[in-house]
Amino acid sequence: MTTAPPSSSLPPPATPPVDTQEGIALAAPRSFAHATGFVYDARMMMHATLADDGHPEQPQRIARIFEMLQRHGCIDRMVRIPAREALRHEVESVHQPQLWDRFESIVKLPVDQLKAYSNDLEISSSLYLNMHSTYCARLACGSVMDMCSAVAAGRVRNGIAIVRPPGHHAEPDSGTGFCLYNNVAVAVQHLLDRPPGAADRVQRVLILDWDVHHGNGTQRAFWNDPRVLYVSLHRYENGTFYPGTHYGHYDQVGGPQALGTSVNVPWPCAGMNDADYLHAFQRCIMPIAYEFSPDLVIISAGFDAAVGDILGGCLVSPTGYAHMTHQLASLARGKLVVALEGGYTLDAIASSALAVTQTLLGDPLPPWPTGLSCSMAGADTVARVVRAQAPYWACMRQSLDYPPAPKEAGVATWATDELYLDARAARLWANHQMMPLPAVGDALLRNQALCTPSTMMPGTQTLLVFVHDMGTWHIGDPDDPQQPALFLADAADDMIQWAHTRGFACLDLCTTQSVSVRMLRNGERDKALPRPDAKPVKTTLEAQALYIWDHVCALSPAQQIVFLGFGSGCDALMHIIANRVVQDRVKAVVQVMGLQPIPLVPKQRQELKAWYLEHSLVLCPCDHPLYTWNEQQASGKRLGRVQRALESNPMQVLLRAKDALDTLLGAPTAPPTATPAPPAPVVTSAS
C-alpha cells in the first residue's frame, strides 16, 4: 500500500508502469469500429492519502490492473484513448458549482492544514484529499467522458476506463465514499446533452453498477430522468451497509417522471456469489434492459464484490464478472463501457478486470463452475425486486404480481390480511361462537382479536391465550380450474378446536404476519437477517399484547391461564411475561417458533428464569438457526426449555403443541356441551 509523502510538491509515484507507447493511439476521430479501447494515465496515482496509516483506495489499484492487462497481452490488442481533464462546465452539468469551488480551495491549503482537514473529511464523508486530488479527479472524469464518447460514436466497439478516484458515491452537492466527482454521471449527461446529429449523441443509457456498495450519487443524478436506466446490485442489509441509507432499497424505483428507471437489487447479507448475481441478471436485469433498449451500456465496475476483497464480503469470481459482461455486451449493438469504481484488494481487482477485458476483446468465456446455485437469500431478494418493478415493466408482470389500480381511479382494493381476518371471524363464530374483542380506538384491527363467551364467565377453569402468525400463502396451479388462485395453509384453527374439546375459554390474537419459514443467510459466519423489507411491527404487536392482557386476561375469572405463541406471537407473549406479573396465573407457556430468533427472558428479570424453565416449552423446527448455525447457544436458561421437533415446517410443529400442552397441564378437561351457532358466510380463498 503506497502512502503519498506529506509535502507541497508531491512527486509522481515511483516507476509507474510504462504506458506511453502501449496500444494504438486514438487522438483523432479515426475509426477502429471493431476494436476495444482503454484509457489509463499514471498521473491519476498522484491522488494519495496524507494520513500515516494508508488507505484502501490506494494508487496501486489502477497500476495493478494495467500491469495485469499488459502481462496477458491485452494492451497490445487494444486502442488507447488519451486521458484528459474534465472542464468545469462539464462537471457542473451534474454537480453544483459550490462543490468545485470547495474542493479547489481545500487542495490549495498549506499541507499541515490540508492533512488535518483531510482527516476530518475522512471521518465525516469517507473521503481524503491531497494537493493533487482535484487534478486526478478531473483526469478520471474526463477520461471516462472521452471513452464513452468514443464508444457511442462508434470509433471503438467497447472499452475500459482504468481510472481513479472512483465516482458513483459523489452526489450533485457532495463528494463522499472515496469519490470527488461522479465520473459516469458526468459522462452520461454529456452524451445526453450533445446536439442532434452529433455522432456520439445518445437517447437512452443503461448504467449497471455492480460495485458492492450502492451508487447513491449516480441514482440521485438521474432519479427523475427517464432516459437513464440505473441498475445496482449491492449489499444492503436493511440499510446498514455503506452508504447506510434506505435509498438502495428495491422500492426506490425512480422519480415521478421516471418510475421504473431505478432498479435496486439489495442483497440482505454477505456471501453472495456468481449464481446469485447471474440469477438477478436472468430473472430481472436483462429482461428490463431489453425492454428499455439502450443506445449505450456503462458498467460502474467496482470489483469489491470479488472473492477476497477486504471490504466487500461477497464471492463473485472473475468468471462471474466475465459472464455478466458478456450478457451486457448483447445490448446496444455491443456499445459497452466499463468504468472502474471500487475494489480494494489488488490481486482480486486485477484478476477481475482481466476477465472483463478479455470478454470485451471477444475471447472465449471461461466455463461456468459446476455445483453453484442461487441462494435462498438471492432468490428471495430478486423475487421482491420483480414485484417492485412489475408496475413499470411488462416483462416483470405476472397475474398475481400485477398491481391494483390506483385508488384515485375509484377501484376498490382489499388487503389479504383483512380478508383473512374477516373470513376467520365468520368461521370461528360459526364453529365456536367466538366473537370479536371490542377495542378502544385503533388498539386492534377489526376481527384481529376473538374470544369465546366463557372468557369472562364465572366458573371458567382455563383460559388459552393464543397469539399467532398467519400461515403461509401459496399460489395455485393456474391450469387447474378446481384450485383457487391463492390459498393459505394455516393450522391455527386446529388449535382452537383442540381447546374447545377440552372446555377451555379462548382468546385468539392474530398478528397478521406470515410465519417465518425461510432463513435469509449466506455463509456460516453471517447471522440470519430479517427480510429486507421487514416493517416495524414489533412495537405495535407488543402494545396489542399488553392491551389484551390488561383489558381481558387480568379481568378474566379463569383459575389458570395458558399461553400459546406461534411465530412472532412468541415475542408478544414474552413481552407480557417481562412487563406484567403473570407467574401466579399462567400455568403453562408453549412457544412454537418459525425461523426467527427465540425470545429470551430479559436479563433484568433474573427471577423469571426458574419459573420460565419450569412452566415453558419452546418447540423449534429441526432446521432452526439454533441447531443449524448454533445461534443463541450462549443464551442458556434465558431461552427456556427448548425441544427440537422432527419437522421443518412450523405449521406441523404447531400441531405437536397440543400434546405438549396436554403434558404440561395434566389430564385434559372433559369437553362441554356446545350450543350450535347460526351459520355465517365463510371466505376460504381468493380467486
From TrEMBL:
<dbReference type="InterPro" id="IPR023801">
    <property type="entry name" value="His_deacetylse_dom"/>
</dbReference>
<dbReference type="InterPro" id="IPR037138">
    <property type="entry name" value="His_deacetylse_dom_sf"/>
</dbReference>
<dbReference type="GO" id="GO:0000118">
    <property type="term" value="C:histone deacetylase complex"/>
</dbReference>
<feature type="domain" description="Histone deacetylase">
    <location>
        <begin position="55"/>
        <end position="360"/>
    </location>
</feature>
<feature type="compositionally biased region" description="Pro residues">
    <location>
        <begin position="669"/>
        <end position="681"/>
    </location>
</feature>
<dbReference type="InterPro" id="IPR023696">
    <property type="entry name" value="Ureohydrolase_dom_sf"/>
</dbReference>
<dbReference type="GO" id="GO:0141221">
    <property type="term" value="F:histone deacetylase activity, hydrolytic mechanism"/>
</dbReference>
<keyword id="KW-0678">Repressor</keyword>
<dbReference type="InterPro" id="IPR019154">
    <property type="entry name" value="Arb2-like_domain"/>
</dbReference>
<dbReference type="Pfam" id="PF09757">
    <property type="entry name" value="Arb2-like"/>
</dbReference>
<keyword id="KW-0804">Transcription</keyword>
<keyword id="KW-0805">Transcription regulation</keyword>
<dbReference type="Pfam" id="PF00850">
    <property type="entry name" value="Hist_deacetyl"/>
</dbReference>
<keyword id="KW-0156">Chromatin regulator</keyword>
<keyword id="KW-0539">Nucleus</keyword>
<keyword id="KW-0378">Hydrolase</keyword>
<dbReference type="InterPro" id="IPR000286">
    <property type="entry name" value="HDACs"/>
</dbReference>
<feature type="region of interest" description="Disordered">
    <location>
        <begin position="667"/>
        <end position="687"/>
    </location>
</feature>
<feature type="domain" description="Arb2-like">
    <location>
        <begin position="424"/>
        <end position="655"/>
    </location>
</feature>
<comment type="similarity">
    <text>Belongs to the histone deacetylase family. HD type 2 subfamily.</text>
</comment>
<protein>
    <recommendedName>
        <fullName>histone deacetylase</fullName>
        <ecNumber>3.5.1.98</ecNumber>
    </recommendedName>
</protein>
<dbReference type="GO" id="GO:0040029">
    <property type="term" value="P:epigenetic regulation of gene expression"/>
</dbReference>
<feature type="region of interest" description="Disordered">
    <location>
        <begin position="1"/>
        <end position="20"/>
    </location>
</feature>
